[in-house]
């Protein structure tokens, strides 16, 4: 299964709606980079509202895709991290450093727009 | 309700954590503990898949002194671990991973035991108590 990537003006929108297996996560990484390249998107919002846990593998894929997107000139915003996910990530010892985050998709889009204007 | 998932391919990692989440929910764990248990199982199952090629993850219910707990047992006959202290350090990885798996699992659960002999395999037992 592939994760759909939507385009909204100069921003790409991704809402992860089901549990990520390893293959889907890696495919998503590749698809997103191609899409950034194709569309010259300047911003990416990844919404994790439906995700109820993140392990070290998925955290690494997410962290990598954020760095890779930034290398290509697109800012990434992560939204909708649930309390349980935030707690387990920190307990696992994973810090998503310098990552832009917002409570929900709407706030994320607004914040990203402001970041892109500066 | 004892049940096990054989870990042979990546999909078995998904099956093991789904089993764990279901048992955790049935035992009455809240969403944060469900996430801790699911994450711990995912780490242990992935380690089996990555380093031992195959093995088994079992989820059991335990009772002790009026407390109910969920036990995760991860067992393989893979290459084993020669330096147990080292693999329990944050950031130590032989595979380019974050090295967060084992030390992370230890923090996510209440009890953590690891036994491993090079050439024989690895046995990990982790318990989360219901509060
Ligand atoms: N079941 C196992 N059999 C043999 N070696 C193992 C096993 N589990 C872990 N190891 C060894 O212990 C090291 C640390 O494991 P840990 O799960 O903490 O980190 P990782 O798997 O390398 O990275 P991450 O889990 O963060 O993606 C591994 O790199 C591996 O060398
Ligand atoms: Mg690991």
UniProtKB/TrEMBL annotation, chain A:
Residue ranges constituting the STAS domain according to the UniProt record: 1-112
InterPro entries linked to this entry: Bact_StressResp_Reg, STAS_dom, STAS_dom_sf
Alphabetized Pfam families for the sequence: STAS
Protein name per UniProt: RsbS, negative regulator of sigma-B
Organism: Bacillus thermotolerans
Automatic annotation (TrEMBL), chain B:
Transmembrane segments: none
Domain Histidine kinase/HSP90-like ATPase: 32-131
This protein's name: Anti-sigma B factor RsbT
Protein source organism: Bacillus thermotolerans
């Amino acid at each position: 299964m592939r994760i759909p990537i939507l385009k909204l003006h100069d921003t790409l929108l991704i809402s992860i709606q089901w549990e990520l297996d390893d293959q889907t996560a890696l495919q998503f990484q590749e698809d997103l980079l191609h899409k950034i390249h194709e569309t010259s998107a300047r911003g990416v919002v990844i919404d994790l509202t439906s995700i109820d846990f993140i392990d070290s593998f998925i955290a690494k894929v997410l962290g990598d895709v954020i760095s890779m997107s930034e290398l290509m000139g697109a800012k990434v915003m992560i939204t909708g991290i649930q309390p349980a996910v935030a707690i387990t990530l920190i307990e696992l010892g994973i810090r998503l450093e310098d990552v832009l985050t917002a409570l929900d998709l709407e706030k994320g889009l607004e914040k990203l727009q402001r970041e892109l204007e500066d | 309700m004892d049940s096990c998932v054989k870990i042979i391919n990546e999909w078995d990692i998904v099956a093991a954590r789904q089993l764990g989440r279901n048992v955790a929910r049935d035992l009455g764990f809240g969403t944060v503990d469900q996430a801790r248990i699911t994450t711990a199982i995912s780490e242990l199952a992935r380690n089996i898949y990555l380093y031992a090629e195959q093995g088994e993850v079992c989820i059991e219910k335990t009772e002790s002194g009026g407390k109910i707990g969920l036990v995760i047992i991860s067992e393989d006959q893979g290459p084993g671990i020669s330096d147990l202290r080292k693999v329990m350090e944050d950031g130590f990885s032989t595979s380019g991973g974050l090295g967060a798996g084992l030390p992370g699992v230890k923090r996510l659960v209440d009890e953590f035991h690891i036994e491993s002999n090079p050439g024989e395999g690895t046995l990990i037992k982790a318990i989360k108590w219901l509060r």
